[in-house]
Amino acid sequence: MDGQLLSETFVELTDTMVAGFDVIDFMHVLTDRSVQLLDVSAAGLLLADPRGELRVVAASSEAARLLELFQLQNDQGPCLDCFRAGQPVAAGDLAAEAARWPRFAPAARQAGFAAVQALPMRLREQVIGALNLFRAGPGAFDPVDIRIGQALADVATISLLHERSMRHSDTLNEQLQTALNSRVVIEQAKGKLAERLGLDMGQAFSLLRDHARSRNLRLSDLARAFIDGSEPLSGLTASATQQQIAGAAQAHNQPPPGEPPGPNRPRPAPRRPRRP
Amino acid sequence: MTSSRPGRIWGLVAAEANRHGGQVSAADACAAAVAAVGVTGAWLSAADGADAGHLMRVTDAVSEQLAELQLTLGEGPALDAYTSGGPVLASDLGASETAGRWPVFAPAALQAGAAAIFVFPLQIGAIRAGAMGLYRVRPGRLSASELGDALVFADTAALLLLDSADQTAAGPDAGTGPAGQPEDLALHRAEIDQATGMLTEQLGVGITEAFVRLRAYAYANDLRLADVARDIVARRLRLRNDLGLPRDGEA
Known about the structure:
A: alpha+beta; Beta-Lactamase; five-stranded antiparallel sheet; B: Beta-Lactamase; 5 strands
């Protein structure tokens, strides 16, 4: 655990919440930092939709097989258990969990993960979602990592209450639905850009996010403007973005060592390949 | 977390349509929501671009007044819902905070007889079909279960509105099939959103028409929407714009 990076992360997160705030982008930063700060390979944030499902809003990688692992947890898995119990759920060795999660455990292992942890996003007595952490290697999670992970999950919860007082559940529910719909807008924009440039969805997401950051735009605003045509993104071409694509192509990314955090810092293009 | 909520609510909407003997429509979703969600009345408006939309259904005179007040005053929860892209839940119109939010609308709505208002945008990502408003004569929040139901009624109304628009644009067959298939609503799938975005490029159409065409293809070929979407995302399937359909005017 890197204490310097941890303190910088919290400064960054609180700075981000003060101005120009986008819940989805913020949650992506949280999942990225989770992977950097904690001994995990991938992270995702899932929110409980009052309609009756858990929905992923942000992940450290947009690789389809990781997103499917989150989606699968509507039926079974640590996030569903965590959401129902309101308590952290951990499995240090997924090979031993076939009886507990007959579909989820093999799927997670096939995606290259050996250990999983779910931490609740709690607001008073209510559980509104979970932070889901995956690690390529087996073994128990470090208690310090779990505490930091829980702090990150708590920050994610607070981010949904931004802008208005924590008066009651109305605000939370308004923000929750806005965030869930923003995520849909981003998925639609990913599809449009992926089709235009011949990219996969993860690459399209990286390009959109990089572009939003370099222009200081909110990711969901950019996505919406791209879809309605008011932001043509004509500057983005497959050839001009080869380097970014090369970096984004890694299913599970790992930040370069010593990378300083900063709210508007462009995402570093080359990432160390990591195959669990 | 998969629940039978979408199926149950579809049943309520279909029962509402049966009572008047017509085809299931968005107006039925609005009417059925009143009893199911536990509110006094409801209204439904269809959006036309950035326009605030026209009223498709009101369940009582107060609902009509609430919808029209917002159009007249240019202030209120429906406009805020459009701007924010999320629902607006005002469970106590008499609270000072609410009065500060809508200094003209809040007292007028109270005068009209409403004490709580909940507005749900009818939307799927960037697709906007309109809005559904609910009101109560007494202040009070929607419970978690009422909120979940209201959201699914709004989803159902959104699909039905898109289908009815499709029917007028693409001929008599287009709107009859996929209308509110509960499967559409049962579980959110990112592939459906991604495929919709891809189709805007493949077909050269706006996002709303892309979604309508995706569902029409699934229905016409008797396939599950999620399966068609997965094939498009995996690039096993491309749709061609060879039906001579008019574009829907979006960029």
